[in-house]
Amino acid sequence: MIPTPIDVSDEVLDDLRRRLKATKWPRDDGNDDGFYGVRRTRLQPLVEYWADGFDWRAAERAINAYDHYRVDVGGVPVHFMHKPGVGPNPIPLILSHGWPWTFWHWSKVIDPLADPASYGGDPADAFDVIVPSLPGFGFSTPSRADMNFWKIADVWHELMTGVLGHPKYAAAGCDVGALVTGQLGHKYADELYGIHIGSALKLDFFNGDRGWDLSGGKPIPPGLPPEIHARILELEHRFASHLAVHVLDPSTLGFGLADSPAGMLAWILERWQKWAESDKTFTDDDLLTHATIYWAGNAIDTSIRTYANNNRYPWTPSHDRTPAIEAPTGITFVGHEDPPGVHTPEERVQNFLASDRAPWYNHVNITAHPRGGHFIPWEVPTEWTTDLRRTFRDLR
Question: Which is an annotated GO molecular function term of this record (predicted)?
Fold first, then answer.
């Protein structure tokens, strides 16, 4: 394989700036509190900076500090970033991101995982780190029209064992990437050291007639304490709109977002703002780096369609053994995503162990943190790195 640095053409960047400067702005009256979604007073200055001021080439240089490769895996184009491990026996580790993530959301943990000694750690904990763009995301485009999380797991296994030649490897992921990683731990457990995930959903999460409905069509029970009622609404409002539209009408949305970079930025900015613990999680340059990756790869439509395909092509088990995910599993939970009624890390762990999700996993290391939001390795990179190392320390 020959390293292929990221190099977005001047033509793509010039077209992006032209479109940004031609944005037709709605009035957005009465939205000072953000009740109706992203505020124009937040979005317009960001769009103007994206058009005139943001330095993509500086971001590109930072990204190209790592080796990048583009390979064909069974007809699926895959881009991945690689950082060789520095230690006596680095084990291969594939990191799977989510939506609206990019491969660059792993950038804060790659070096500490690959070279722990340079960060005060034990070189025996080193990993050989492989960070792909999910098919249909970032620079892994164009992708197959039917791609979903369990099909991505098959692509990843072929990438790691067939293309890269690793007879055994480790896997980690968050968001959609946690489902990809869980499927690896289900179908390919014998060829994995283990997995580490940033959530612990059941692999049939998207199955069924209402795979777009977090509530499953159930009303909120009456008589709940006000705090619990409010937390249920907060969490459902945080995730419901994108989940429903992505599952039910991804292409309809995609036409608008693929044509308008301001519209694309608004749609994913809403998620970055609400899902992160703090609005200071991302600088403007951070936001626009990730947004440019989506735009340059023409990936917004195909990344969104993954949700619909998770429902259209339901997950089916590869075996009937229990736990379904036999690979040893570490889990990191964060405070911003605590369920209703949970207030401490200890309560979060117990809440999971008492849930119907716990029996799905061969969990060997569960850690909850009081802080941190949905973008775990970006928001709490030190905690994530520590948790992941602990998971694999006895599995090497």
Answer: epoxide hydrolase activity
